[in-house]
């Protein structure tokens, strides 16, 4: 008799189980969807592994998920003949954090607990913690599994109360059996009709047979024969949805497939279903979601597109089929031409994959362009969710930059709102007659951008400025030098173009203020590259400006926050000769150095930078206040 080992769950798993057991969601049926989905994945993995090791799958073996019930024992069993697990894999996948999403799921559920319990049902699938949903309906769960290609099997068992046991077992074939000992209040899941309804609702799209025992044959009186042998029958269509003609597929079927794929409770924003024939034959079924998934900003999570070859699952993180900035797109691509033993290395160089990816990207971008034009409100909602990742495309995908650029939206001084709703086309259409550039400013927040002193002259002249506050914006403007032959120009870099009259006035002021600027340059030589008169300011005494080809202060701050080395370049200090503070500067005064440092520090603070020595700044202010 094998030794039984008992192990404690990790802390996060114990918290998760407590949520599952004590939060009685109204949609407890979701557990069956999760188990069938896991079984389907296990079968896909075995089928894929058998492509390189034929011994893992017998020719006459039918791959299927089987569901049986025992009304006397009050048990429900889900069986699959998939890849199975070893002892170590069972402990790793079930006893510890199954994925990085587990901890995030617990945090999300604790944050929303009590507000909407059904929200937890939607989160279960999204966070990859589906197995543990069994404890919503069962007070004891037994899992027996055997890894394909091995002889050893193990039994895992738990009551969901902080620990689990594991021991050796005997199992005649590869795969996994999960037996749920149902609670009294979950007896409904012993009824065939109820189970079939759940399968039809959530798992109809599964492209392999889901089997249950059929009804007993009837006797002469039309009554079920009690002792008659019942046969297993397939209760789902078992046909890949994407392989069917789209005119035969209802919106409900698309929605059901999408939910099974993503666990997103909302309908997708758009569905793109195409079959391509000719020299390159493949089918694609892509979904553009309405809401961003919880892991949108985890660039290492790439499970948007499932790759099939002739309806045989190959992999579910085919990053070679969709660029990173479209990582929110979900769906399947089924190729008729790729080899069944396709590997990641082959994907990197395969010409067909390059063509399929190119066409898939074009379809998505064309559809987003259509929505932006025909459904402006829907596109604005989409942009609010995914705009920042779309911006990454300008940097990453030079081949499609011309298609991505019209999709961009920004906040601007034309609207007193942080809403990113202005396109570059909108901006160009509002440009003043003699305006030669598209002006923008970057900052760490919309508020900082809107309040920047660099905008003062632009506001006075009623020139629109784009307010860019997303971190990716710094890289975006470097990769997008122009639009419609209009250069993009930062209002905080270089010198501004002045009218002839403004230039004449500035030359006069330059001569009058030469002694002050020279003295400021001398005092602040360690901090600034140059001191000059400004053409930007109307209200503030001074501002810091980057040289035309230098990275701006905001980019420097972002790079340092990311732990990257950033060149520390001296800025240019521009002073406003019309400001009373500047007018009163006396180069002979003993306090001139204090006033110079005050001007520099205030200019730095006004653009969101941290001054190097706050204590020294406070002392200077105090000295000047009592002088």
Element layout with pairings:
Layout: E1 5-8, H1 11-22, H2 30-49, E2 65-70, E3 75-80, H3 87-95, H4 101-112, H5 117-126, E4 138-146, E5 153-158, E6 163-169, E7 175-182, H6 192-202, E8 210-213, E9 232-234, H7 251-262, E10 270-276, E11 282-288, E12 305-309, E13 312-315, E14 330-335, H8 344-349, H9 351-374, H10 376-396, H11 401-404, E15 411-412, H12 424-430, E16 438-442, H13 446-450, H14 456-460, E17 466-468, H15 473-479, E18 482-483, E19 486-490, H16 500-512, H17 514-523, E20 530-533, E21 542-545, H18 553-561, E22 572-575, H19 580-583, H20 592-606, H21 614-626
Parallel strand pairs: 2-8, 12-14, 16-17, 16-19, 20-22
Antiparallel strand pairs: 1-6, 2-3, 3-7, 4-5, 4-7, 5-6, 8-9, 10-11, 11-14, 12-13, 15-17, 18-19, 21-22
Account of the protein in words:
With 627 residues, the chain is of the alpha+beta class. The chain is built from 21 helices and 22 strands. A nine-stranded mixed β-sheet has the order 1-6-5-4-7-3-2-8-9, with helices on one face. It is elongated, with a radius of gyration of 32 Å. Mean pLDDT is 85; it is low at 97-102 and 114-128.
